[in-house]
Each structure stands twice: as C-alpha cells, then as structure tokens.
C-alpha cells in the first residue's frame, strides 16, 4: 500500500487540520478515526485491548463514545453545543437527559475565570460523572431558569485502542517515540506531536537506521501503562526513547531529561540542542508518559521533547490551543531536531584503538598530511587523533565530539577512516 | 522530680544569667554547680572521672578550684580582683602568694592591646603556671613599685565532671548534642549553648522522637576525649550529632560540616537553613569538640552549629562576651533551628515503592483528584508522585524534598498516605 | 668530568645561543652536535638507534644530513641560502641539482603569505620530496627565468640519536622530563626548553631528590616513540612526567593536563601555579610528545609545561622564533616553577595518624602552645591539626595543603614534627 508522504511543512499542517475536529478520548471511535487517517501516511499495527484487562496496577476502562451533547437555556436556545467544539463536554461524561435550574446545573459547569473567553479541557475517566466546559463569559450571560441538558454518550465494555509503527534497523535494539492520542480538539497537545512523529518515521525509513525505531500512538497514562504491561519482555531491548508532545507551539525546544538524568538519550539531545535557544529540564514525575516509562521499576532512558513544556503556556488545555496556535515552522524544527538527534544516536558507537601504544603512523596509511611544521592541523586530522586517543572502550564518539569540540560528523568520519585502515574496531 | 520548664526566651535568659557568675573550668566545683542548676531543668547523669585516668592519648588532670585571687598595687589597692570577674585569673593557675616588682609581675599579666578596655580569657591546663588577665588600660595605669599577688587555688587529685541527659526515642540509634561547660563568665561561649540544649531536650521529650537524643555537657577537649574513651562501644549507634556553641550572639546561624562533608546531619542542616541568612563552612580541625568527634579514627557524622562561628566575633574570649552580648531572640532561633533539623532527621526515611512499574492508580485509592485536565496539580499530589518515583530504596525523603522542591512536611505526609494505601514500605 | 654550571639566566641564554645555529632534525649530525654541547653541562647517555628499527607502529627512518643548499636566480645571485638560515630548507629534503623555470620551482617554495617577512619552518620526514622556505616578500621579488637549485643533502641508513640523563633519587620510581631536540634554528621551540631542562637537572642533583628524575632529549614523535618502545618495561616505574617546550617566550606559564586529568603531576602543577598569572588546559592529543606518553595504551601521568602554548604565538614555527624572542627572565621563571613543582612532588607523601582516636595531646610532646584561650592559632599548630585529621592513608600532604589553605612547606614541616613525635607513619 502506498502511503502519503509528509515531506513539507504544509503536509504536516494539513494532517493536523484533518485530525483537529475529531473527538478523541482515552478510548473510542475518535481514536480509531485518528489512527485511520494516520495510517494513510505510515502503516500501523492497531491494537484493541478489551475493557477489564488488568494492566499493571490499572484496569482498562469501559469504552466511551459520544454522539451529541448540548445545554438549552430557558428559551430553548443551545448555549453549549458539543457540535461546535468537542471541548464543551467533560471527557467520559455519562449520558444525561434532564432539565434543571441553573443553580443545579452550575455544579456541572467548568470555566476558566481568569481566562474568561476560553473553554477549558476537562475529563473524568475514572469517576462516573458528567459535565460541560464553557467560557466564563458565556456562563456569566446565562439567565436564571430551567435548562435542558443532554449528553448522548455511551460507556460500555469495549476496547482501548493504540497503534504501533516500527521502522526496522540494522539491530533489534529499539528506540521508542511515544505520542499521546487521547486529547480532542487541542492542536499543539498533541496533534502536532502526532504529525511530527509520522513524518519522522517516514524519514527514518528512508535512511536505513541503525536502531529499530518503534512509534507508539496511544492514550496518555492508561495507554502507556497498557503498552508497558503487554511489552515487559521487550523492554530490555529499549535503548532510548522520546515522549513527543507539544511539538508545534512557537516556543523554542525544551528537553526534559529521563529519570536517570545521564542516559544516552539525555546526552544526545543536550548535544544536539546546544548552541541554539532551548531549555533542558530535570526529570519530574509529572507531564506526559515519561512518567510511566521512567517509573522506578522500569527506569528507561526515555526523555521528553516539547516546544514550550507541559502546562507552560496559557493556551494549554484550553480552546486557544487551536490550529492558529500551531506553527508550521515549529513543527518542521521539531522534526529536524529529532532527525538530527537520532542520527547522532544511531552513530554513537564505542571503538577500541588497536594500536594504542603511541600514535599509529597515520602518514604511511595515507591518513595524514605529509608536510610537517604547519600549525593549522585540519579538522579531519584532529578528529582522527582524538578518536584514537579516546577509543579505549569507555568513550563513545559523542564523548569524543564533546571533549574535542569537533563536529560529530567529523568524528564519525574519522572513526570510519581509522576503522577502514584497521586501526580501530567496534 | 518535677523539672523547671524552659518554655520562653525569658526562661533561657534567666538560666544563662544564673550560670554566668560561676567560675567554671575543665574540672572543679564551678562545673558541678553549673550541672546542679541545669539539673533543675533536665535530669542529668553526672559522671566523675578520677584524676590520672587514661583517656585515649590523654590523662585526666588534677582538679582545680579557686577561692580568691587578687593583685594589690604598691598602695595596697586591689587593681585586679577575681571577685569582680573570674576572667581575671588564668584558668588552672597554681597558688601564689608573693610580692614582686611590676616588671616581674608583667610576665604573668595578659592583656589585649588592640582591645584595651577588655579582659582576655586565658588558661594553662597542662603547663603549671599562674597569671592574671586584665584590660590593657588597667595595665597602662599601674604605677611602678612592688605588687602583692595572691591566688588561693588548689590543684589536687580529684575528678573531671561531666553530665549526660538522654531523651529516649523509638529506636536506640543515637543523635548527640554536645556542649562545652568549661568556660567561666563567657555568656555566648557557651552558656547560651547550654541553655538552648536544655530547652531542646525538653522539647524533644515532649514529642516522642524517633532517634534517641543524648545530650552531653562536658569540658572542651578533655571532656569529649573522656566521653569518647568511655563510650567507644556506643559509637556504632551514633547516627548523627551536633556540637552546639555560641548559640546566642546576634549573628545569623553558621553550620560547620562534619569531616565527612556529606553526612546526613550535614544535609539536614543545610536543608533547614536554606532560604534564610546563614553560612555553611567546611570542616576544619579547629573549633569546638567536633575536632574530637571528627578525628579520623572516629569520623562521626557530627557537625557544629553556632551563630557567628568560633573566634569570629571581637567579643570572643573576652569580658565583652557578657550577658549583654547574648540575644534572647538568637537563642530562640537557634532552638527553633535545631528543633526543625531534628524533626527532619527523625522523619527522613527511605521507602520502597511496592508498585514500581508504571504509576499506581492513585484515584481508585482515593489519593488523587478525579477531574483531569487541570494544570494546577496540588502539592499533595505532586508529593505522592515524587515519593513514588524516587522510592527505590536509594533516596530518602530529604532527597525527595530537595529534588522536587516540595516542603519536607508534604513529602512526609505523602509517604504516610502511600504507606497507608499499601503502596510503600519502609 | 667537571660539568659547566648553568647557574644564572646568562648561562641559560648562552647555552641557547650556542645551540641556535645548528641544523637539527629528527636524525643527523645536528642532533649529535647539540647533545655534545649539552654534555658539557650534564652527563648524557647517548643512544643511537639504527635506521629500520621497528618502534611500536613506526620504523626508524633514514638519517638525514645536509651540507649546503641554495637557489640562484637567473642572474646567478643566491636568493635563498641555507647558510643564512637552516630554516630555508624543508627538513629531510632529498638532494637536488637542477635548473628550472620559476613556475616549476614555485611548487617547492613555502612561504607565509600572512606574515610576508618571515620564513616558515617545514619538514617532510616520511614523504621523499624537497623544498625551500622563504619570505613571501622574497618570493614576490623574484624575476621570471630559470633558477639553479641545489640541495646537498644525504638520506642514508644511519641512526636516530637521543640522550638520557638520570638524577638518581632515594627511590627508583621515576619522573620524566622530556624535551624535543629536532627543531633547527627555533629558539623558544625548543632550545629554551633544552636549556631549562639541563639547568633543572643540575639543581635536582644538588638536592638529593626523592624520586629519580630521568631527562629525555629526543626528536619529537619518532624519538618519544622510540624511547617508549625501548623502555616499555620501565614505564611501571614512571610516576609522573613533564613534556617541556617553549620555555622562554614572554608569556605566562601554561600547564596542559595529562590525559588522566587528575594525575598527581596535574594537581602539583596546578597547585604551584595557583595565585599567579597562568593557564591550565585540558589534555588534547596534539602538541608535543605528551601525545605519545598519553596515548591510551600508556596513559602516563605526563603533562606539558610551556609558556605560551603550542602554536599559540605568531612567531611559532617561523624565523621570528629567534634569539630575540626568548626572554632570560621567562627561562628562569620556568626553571623556578619546575623546581618548586618537583619539590612538592618529592615531598607529597601520604601518612597515617597513629593516634587517630581524638586528637593526640600535642602539648605533652612539646608540639603545642601551652597557653589556651587565644584565637590566633599559629600556622604550625593548624598544620599539625590538619595533618593529623587528614592522615588516614587517603589524603596526601598536597590534599592537606589544599583543603587547609596552608602553605605546603608548613604542612610538610608539621608532618615531619608529628612523625618525629611518633604520631605519624608514612
């Protein structure tokens, strides 16, 4: 099956725009529709896990679907309408068909008093309730009287849906890229991340990568927990990972370290981001699914890449996280950053100098400029000397690049030249 | 026996004032009188160690007592008088009853030329001599002629006196609080320390502490050496300790690290003092009895808390270290600081997350707010997530508080809640 | 045989001036003549290693000697003349006797276009070629026409020549001081280094040193590789070393760390240089023969001392590195710095406190001021307390000096006093 390429920023934006209207939650048909569209770009293994399945300390909940929902004021006018924005209904709201005075209704209405024109995003996955989200301005304008309330949702035994996409590498050791797929009409959080991940998968497949890259599209928390529960034996193969979210807002990139703090992925991302505006944060057990990957029992080398970090922008979890908030350039930059990071990760080997006593004579192997006395040693020669000096089995090429200050590509080229001359082995 | 409470700053000041006139030294009745007054507030085990007892590399010296001492000028006027201030006599002066010209007397007179109005504090415990201390101004005004000199002291076989007070805890592991009791009329050094220690013992007893707290009131150097020599087998039980001195001057607190530098007591004191004016000093083998506790053979986790550090104020070891120099507020603050530090120390446990794979579902245990989507995670919830994430047996609750930036009390409360839910064990 | 003393800066300068005109290379009679003059000051073991000898990854090359070389312009005037400066001939030039147009000759001419008045220094040890070095200004003035070119050199089987000088110490553990001897008329690089090394050897011999000091005078790269190949079994005895170069330029001292970065020699040099203008650089695998000593297989604790570092001054490897560039004061300062460094190294022992439980009673051993109460503890007493406290077998006297902030000499004196009193053993 031919897949649609995601080659340009416009392609990324178009994908985000198609996914935006869908009403996603941690289960349900909105997720399935999302994965179907995504499947037009990259092949997906879609997993359906039945309600009631025990996953680690959790249980897969009932499946939630919603057809319609609204609130009518005493005059019969729809003042809150799910069809206008799926943010208007609290996620996992149980069905309701009642008429009640405004005072009673208020207990089910959520607003943002400090951002009175915005609609908040709220959910209640594990406590059966119902509710509507609306602008404080809307609420303030509601007259007293009896309101008709309708939520046409279903909460039944069904499935939790997530998908995997694998880019096979030279080795079966894996790098995870995980995106949450459970947020409804929130563009940066996380449609931008989903789009960037899909484009990244296409680019990785185009170059045969060293590691195997496994992309995970799954609902936050319960999805990661489900995947971890079902893949415990695979985890020994996981060498690194990135939780990708908020990939499109106009802020500069933020890397949040894994719980280990000095995992290889941490060093790679910090290396790639150095020299440009960015932030590096220490791990904290809050945010996206790095919480699960970095729980102490797993403690995987998984960090998180965002633009502005989790909950760090006023549009976060509001109706202002819309298509206007997402920048094509930011998505392209996030994509390029991860492309570069994985290129470093893929080539970051440890070598052993096979001629470690004194310098080997590079000149007789054609690796060294023959005319001595000049002080302008070339980058290529310096890179060879550095690789030889630090290739003691303990230092990686990233170590060499960092200690020498030389470009990573030069260090890799030097290692390959030296390996070609029989002076280095992996 | 009912003990007098030391509840208020006024109580602390009154105790300092009662102790101030007594002529203490490393042995003798001044120490006994001091301990008797102290015993009105906390029960004391008073130990009398005979002269000649070998203690580590040292020998308990003869006991020194003094009834009177003076210098009369050629006109018969007392120009230096022990009864005015016990600082006037060099500690451990041998008896003398002579008449001598001023020129000869000068060799026995000690002044502070740069602080000409102050009387210095001097001792000569281990070299038999005698001497007087006086203001340079006084010395400068002395006429030539013959001076009558009298020191009515005794240096005989007797005892070295020190006292212990124990606040029993849940466990027999001990925390030491050590104060030197050998200085005569010097208020900050160390009557303020003695008073604060006694009040601290009362407060600790009022809350049943986790550790057993052992308070030591003993002469500097020889007292600590004597206690260490007699308690070598107990030292394995000593988890931490504080040498408390200069607890009442107006300076901000100074914590001097143990020789280890990263002992638990070091981390606790630095944590408690953070965010307010204070100093932290590295260990040095000079100062108070931390010198002995931190000698390389013992190397105990014992730091030192003072206000202005040892020898760091111009009043140090002079007649200006008097009752006016000691601030009630400073004593109260020192008391509060140690109370807080020991409260942290007592609760600074290491836990193990019993559900370490992924996050446990806090919501179903009533530990987590059910409404999702909001970004204002509460302190209590963050504390639970942090405790779960770091409870791998390696991190203590203090580690959690420091890494998370959350209040220690919140972290402890989270640990207790999680333990109550069966998610954590100690 | 009596050796000429190098007592004064004038002696150092005179030695540099005598060595300056000689045409040194990595082999040949210029090196031998250099060592002969050096031998007037310190006895040398001169080693001759035959051409073709395998040394580590390298082979000792043919021996190069040169009698004369010149270029005559179309009018028969010598425009480049080896007899004016040996820098005019590319080192290891094969013999040539040809006439050729300027256009063809240009391929064999080396200049420094950005320093048009200076003659560069160039070599081609391992690729047979020939060439001349000249000022860009000279080149620009050459008329077109046919040039007569003559290099009267020989490249034959012969020997590589290097020399050793040993100052025996109390122990056979060795400290290396290595100087390259292969540069022709370049004064700072490395005649100043050779002169300073010779004077240092004389001074070390005058005080019986603790370590055995081995001075190596050998051609760069191939010389160090030859020595290492022939002394592999000795290397276990090498406790430290310094590669000494550029010892006379007016810059302040630069210490380049060994590959280990925290070898004892690194700590000693940083200690000695602290508090005066200087630079400390991390190891890099480029520069002088520290490249070989610090190759990963050997990884010796060998750093490098220069004034302005390798290639760090515009006169580097040009005719401007002449006698005027070398400062007598700088050579004296380099000599003094190394003298002090080796004095610290020689005395930097680890001791064990034989009375580690509490402080030993210094007073009864006459080591402590008997009058107590004063706050101005003397340096000698503080040094004794520090040495006792840190002499746990893990800390060296340099550690004590650094942690205490006390002068190293005071710390050493304290250790000797304590050892004399039976309180310390090595």
From TrEMBL, chains A, B, C:
<dbReference type="InterPro" id="IPR036388">
    <property type="entry name" value="WH-like_DNA-bd_sf"/>
</dbReference>
<dbReference type="InterPro" id="IPR012353">
    <property type="entry name" value="UCP015244"/>
</dbReference>
<keyword id="KW-0479">Metal-binding</keyword>
<dbReference type="Pfam" id="PF16254">
    <property type="entry name" value="DUF4910"/>
</dbReference>
<feature type="binding site">
    <location>
        <position position="189"/>
    </location>
    <ligand>
        <name>Zn(2+)</name>
    </ligand>
</feature>
<dbReference type="InterPro" id="IPR032589">
    <property type="entry name" value="DUF4910"/>
</dbReference>
<feature type="binding site">
    <location>
        <position position="317"/>
    </location>
    <ligand>
        <name>Zn(2+)</name>
    </ligand>
</feature>
<dbReference type="GO" id="GO:0046872">
    <property type="term" value="F:metal ion binding"/>
</dbReference>
<dbReference type="Pfam" id="PF16221">
    <property type="entry name" value="HTH_47"/>
</dbReference>
<protein>
    <submittedName>
        <fullName>Peptidase M28</fullName>
    </submittedName>
</protein>
<keyword id="KW-0862">Zinc</keyword>
<feature type="binding site">
    <location>
        <position position="183"/>
    </location>
    <ligand>
        <name>Zn(2+)</name>
    </ligand>
</feature>
<feature type="domain" description="UCP01524 winged helix-turn-helix">
    <location>
        <begin position="350"/>
        <end position="425"/>
    </location>
</feature>
<dbReference type="InterPro" id="IPR032610">
    <property type="entry name" value="DUF2172"/>
</dbReference>
<feature type="domain" description="DUF4910">
    <location>
        <begin position="14"/>
        <end position="348"/>
    </location>
</feature>
<dbReference type="Pfam" id="PF09940">
    <property type="entry name" value="DUF2172"/>
</dbReference>
<dbReference type="InterPro" id="IPR032622">
    <property type="entry name" value="UCP01524_HTH"/>
</dbReference>
<feature type="domain" description="DUF2172">
    <location>
        <begin position="63"/>
        <end position="154"/>
    </location>
</feature>
């Amino acid at each position: 099956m031919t897949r649609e390429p995601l080659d340009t920023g416009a392609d990324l934006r178009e994908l985000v725009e198609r996914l935006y209207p869908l009403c996603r939650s941690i289960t349900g048909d909105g997720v399935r529709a999302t994965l179907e569209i995504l499947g037009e770009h990259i092949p997906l293994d879609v997993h359906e896990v039945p309600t009631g399945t025990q996953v680690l300390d959790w249980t897969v909940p009932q499946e939630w679907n919603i057809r319609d929902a609204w609130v009518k004021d005493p005059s019969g006018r729809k003042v809150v309408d799910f069809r206008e924005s799926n943010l208007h209904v609290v996620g996992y709201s149980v069905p309701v068909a009642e008429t009640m005075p405004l005072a009673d209704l208020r207990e089910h209405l959520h607003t943002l008093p400090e951002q009175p024109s915005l609609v908040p995003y709220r959910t209640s996955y594990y406590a059966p309730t119902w509710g509507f989200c609306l602008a404080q301005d809307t609420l303030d304008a509601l007259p007293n009287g009896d309101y008709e309330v309708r939520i046409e949702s279903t909460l039944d035994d069904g499935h939790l849906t997530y998908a995997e996409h694998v880019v096979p590498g030279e080795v079966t050791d894996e790098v995870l890229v995980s995106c949450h797929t459970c947020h409804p009409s929130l563009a940066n959080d996380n449609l931008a991340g989903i789009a960037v991940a899909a484009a990244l998968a296409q680019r990785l497949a185009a170059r045969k990568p060293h590691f195997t890259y496994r992309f995970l599209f799954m609902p936050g928390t319960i999805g990661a927990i489900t995947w971890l529960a079902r893949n415990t034996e695979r985890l020994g193969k996981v060498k690194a990972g990135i939780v990708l979210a908020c990939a499109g807002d106009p802020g500069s990139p933020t890397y949040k370290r894994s719980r280990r703090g000095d995992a290889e992925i941490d060093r790679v991302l910090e290396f790639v981001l150095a020299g440009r505006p960015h932030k590096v944060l220490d791990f904290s057990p809050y945010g996206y699914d790095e919480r699960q990957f970095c729980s102490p029992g797993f403690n995987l080398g998984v960090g998180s890449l965002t633009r502005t970090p989790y909950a760090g922008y006023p549009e976060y979890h509001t109706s202002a996280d819309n298509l206007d908030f997402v920048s094509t350039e930011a998505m392209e930059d996030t994509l390029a950053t991860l492309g570069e990071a994985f290129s470093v990760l893929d080539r970051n080997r440890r070598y052993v100098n096979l001629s470690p006593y004194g310098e080997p004579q590079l000149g007789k192997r054609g690796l060294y400029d023959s005319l001595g006395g000049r002080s302008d040693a070339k980058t290529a020669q310096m890179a060879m000397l550095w690789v030889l000096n630090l290739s003691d089995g303990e230092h990686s090429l990233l170590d060499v690049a960092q200690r020498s200050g030389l470009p990573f590509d030069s260090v890799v080229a030097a290692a390959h030249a030296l390996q070609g001359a029989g002076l280095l082995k992996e």
